[in-house]
Each structure stands twice: as structure tokens, then as C-alpha cells.
Amino acid sequence: MRDRVPVHGMASTVEITSTTVQRGDILHIGGRVCRVQDLFQLPHGAKQLLFDTGELLTIHVRTHFVAVRMTRRR
């Protein structure tokens, strides 16, 4: 099965942390492409990310990832 990235809009690479992560961000983790579907705030600034696949990832305030963020065309 192929992971799909939307073709509408422009893609930009951004560094994300628990404070800057957004729904729709695309992360490359363990050789897989994971899109953030939802976010849950946890104590001490941590966040739990829910991916489209149903998997969860908890990130700490010092966790840094490089992600792809789609911006809409204007």
C-alpha cells in the first residue's frame, strides 16, 4: 500500500515541537508516513498525537521533529 500526500496546496518542511504541532502535519517515523489527525494536551506541555492509522504518539516539550506542512493555495 502506498502512503498518499495531498496534491492541493504547497508543501513546506517545518520543525515541530509539542507547542507547534498542528492537525494535518505529516511526519516520517520509522520509515512510515504518518499524518496527525488529532491532538490531545497532556500535563507539563506534552501532547499526544493521533494519526490517521489510529496509532498514538506522545511527544514531550523537548521533542523535535521535521514535518511536512501543507499550505493552501490562495
Keywords:
74 residues; six-stranded antiparallel beta sheet; 0% helix
Structural notes for this entry:
- The chain has 74 residues and is an all-beta fold.
- It has strands at 10-16, 26-29, 32-41, 47-51, 56-59, 65-71.
- The chain has a six-stranded antiparallel sheet, with no helix packed on it.
- It is globular and about 35 Å long.
- The relative contact order is 0.35.
In terms of quaternary structure, the protein is single chain
Strand content: over 45%
Note the total helix count. Answer: 0
Order of helices and strands: EEEEEE
Describe the sheet with the most strands: 6 strands, antiparallel
Low-confidence stretches: none
Q: Helical residue percent?
A: under 10%
Going by helix content, strand content and strand pairing, the class is mainly beta
Question: What is this entry, summarized?
Answer:
With 74 residues, the protein is mainly β.
SSE inventory with pairings:
Elements lengths: L9 E7 L9 E4 L2 E10 L5 E5 L4 E4 L5 E7 L3
Antiparallel strand pairs: 1-6, 2-3, 2-6, 3-4, 4-5
